[in-house]
């Protein structure tokens, strides 16, 4: 974002002051759209340019007839924010930005949070921290504020690189501000989509402040993009159905010509008798994704389990590593899924022949558990690993640890009144426990931004193992070994979290790989199609419903 702003300003086409005016005007405009009747607003302005936007919002609301109260800081902001502050000061007062002053004010229709935006460097402290916690519900009024807070760029304290709050535990529970609406500028940032971002931002509005032509220049030239923001654009891509449509139509157009082998042959390795359901879901999804042929490969002894529909599915017994190696000698098999319902031992035995074949493949579920035990050797650029959080922690324990941040100590207070004070008694234990708790809180308070993010973790994992890593969750991150990454947010499709949903995702990606999509595109487009299928079905979804939604999803995309 900073690089875009600098490029725009260096071109002479726009000044920082104009960008700030557009940003503040956009926020005020969105407030007036949702609260058409002029009411009462409190605007909280921080020390930097986010605060500068706040002074612009105050001015615009005042001019529209709102009764506006501004709380600001007694500091010398940068020139643009200083000018906006001066312009506001000609219209109204600026009260000190403290929790006491904030609480003393009359209740308002809207509270504009313009304290910190992208420039947050450390955990909020003192009065500001108290005020943010109060807005987050520490005073018992959390719901009141959730309905009324409008955040400028983000709720203050949110790290826009990671979606975590600086100074708060990474899991929900602490009092952090939640907005009803967040107005971001130009593009969503990773922190709007990751971790707590979607939960605390409320409705996310991305306002156009006239930077598009500079963004587009960056989109096609990876080399000139600053490394830490690379993910933003592909993330935006994935959120953008048009981008997916063009990618998919390229793949699907091939359907107009050729025979079934032109569209690839996917092999889904299945597990022993009684465990075939997961692999059948995977196979069905690969078929619906348009792979020309799909073969399900259980051990011969379990073939009978798969006698039912779909009839389009081929079955072939695959016994052990040799069985797989023999089958993969057929070069017409263009992609393989290993893991769903496979059993850890069987998946472990299959890993070597599969990786040696260099076939594009999806490694999921039991294959990931086997991989964690075996080691990452032999993975290649055609592999897509699809771990959930727990599997990721088994594969990359150090990255998962870093992502989790400071962990609260386990507290176990032992009351032993009889021996209290004697050496080595639980009294020492209590003191040590309190010390551990104090250390934990200090570690949180000392946090510096940007925090290590899910995006960083997926990228580091992909670079380390040399394969595409799709780290599942409501915020799915897909990263390739060369650093390209995409974010797919399915926060608004909570019913996707259901048994077997991951098996279907593995099948969709395998189908796309079989059809020849590069692994990163197959994984990212797969995540998108998976969520679209769930969105189309709605609540009440079970994994079996997902593959049958795919034709409708393709139709909706105009394919
Ligand atoms: N650039 C543009 O063209 C446009 C930018 N726009 C807007 O600018 C925003 C970014 O502005 P920004 O870079 O000034 O950062 P911002 O979020 O206001 O905060 C930084 C200030 O807070 C301070 N600070 C940090 N942490 C702190 C803490 N814990 N406790 C206390 N202080 C702390 C930090 O000081 P320092 O770290 O140097 O001590 C610095 O003074 C962006 O989100 C968008 O709203 C729009 O107008 C569109 C055009
Ligand atoms: K803010």
From TrEMBL:
Homotetramer. One of its GO terms (biological process) is nicotinamide nucleotide metabolic process. It catalyses: (6S)-NADHX + ADP = AMP + phosphate + NADH + H(+); (6S)-NADPHX + ADP = AMP + phosphate + NADPH + H(+); (6R)-NADHX = (6S)-NADHX; (6R)-NADPHX = (6S)-NADPHX. Its cofactor is K(+); Mg(2+). Keywords: ATP-binding, Isomerase, Lyase, Metal-binding, Multifunctional enzyme, NAD, NADP, Nucleotide-binding, Potassium. Catalyzes the epimerization of the S- and R-forms of NAD(P)HX, a damaged form of NAD(P)H that is a result of enzymatic or heat-dependent hydration. This is a prerequisite for the S-specific NAD(P)H-hydrate dehydratase to allow the repair of both epimers of NAD(P)HX. In the C-terminal section; belongs to the NnrD/CARKD family. GO terms for molecular function: ADP-dependent NAD(P)H-hydrate dehydratase activity; ATP binding; metal ion binding; NAD(P)HX epimerase activity. (6S)-NADPHX binds at residues 49-53, 117-123, 153, 278, 341, 388, 503. It comes from the Bacteria. SUPFAM superfamilies: Ribokinase-like, YjeF N-terminal domain-like. Gene3D superfamilies: 3.40.1190.20, YjeF N-terminal domain. PROSITE patterns: YJEF_C_2, YJEF_C_3, YJEF_N. The keyword Heme does not apply. AMP binds at residues 472-476, 502. Binds 1 potassium ion per subunit. Residues 243-557 form the YjeF C-terminal domain. K(+) binds at residues 50, 113, 156. Its EC number is 4.2.1.136, 5.1.99.6. The gene is nnrE. It holds the Pfam family Carb_kinase. HAMAP family: NADHX_dehydratase (MF_01965), NADHX_epimerase (MF_01966). This is Bifunctional NAD(P)H-hydrate repair enzyme. PANTHER family: ATP-DEPENDENT (S)-NAD(P)H-HYDRATE DEHYDRATASE (PTHR12592:SF0), ATP-DEPENDENT (S)-NAD(P)H-HYDRATE DEHYDRATASE FAMILY MEMBER (PTHR12592). Residues 1-217 form the YjeF N-terminal domain.
